[in-house]
Write a structure and sequence with these properties.
By secondary structure, the protein is mainly β. The chain has one helix and eight strands; from the N terminus they run αββββββββ. Helices cover 12% and strands 35% of the residues.
Length: 120
């Protein structure tokens, strides 16, 4: 069953954003345990989890989005993105994850994914 009450869609999308205010990247699928397995680390500037700065869902859209910018160490291949409850690297608090197009960074660089969640 999909949700038909617009205000409920907005509430659930905004709750998702509140549950996972930070984004992170992985070098391989972290699995479904919530652990931060394969999380990117290192570099200068050092890789860090970033605030998602989610938009607010309103008007029945049931959708939030965010575009954090990550610093990626040289020699790193990123394959997955996740959203987390904490800004601390390697904390087992991954709330959701998805595969992204694999990208290898030969030198230090940045990556800015456009991320969204939509409550159906």
């Amino acid at each position: 069953m999909s949700i038909s009450i617009p205000a409920t869609k907005d509430t659930l999308a905004n709750d998702y954003a509140a549950l996972a205010p930070y984004g992170t990247l992985f070098t391989a699928d972290p699995g479904t345990s919530g652990a931060a397995t394969n999380e990117v680390s290192g570099g200068s500037p050092a890789f860090a989890r970033k605030s998602m700065a989610w938009s607010t869902s309103s008007g029945g859209a049931g959708s939030v989005s965010g575009s954090p910018t990550f610093d990626i160490p040289a020699g790193t291949t990123i394959t997955n993105m996740g959203v987390c409850a904490s800004s601390t690297l390697t904390t087992a608090d991954v709330k959701d994850k998805c595969a992204i197009t694999s990208q290898t960074f030969a030198s230090q660089g940045t990556y800015q994914p456009s991320t969204s969640f939509t409550q159906a």
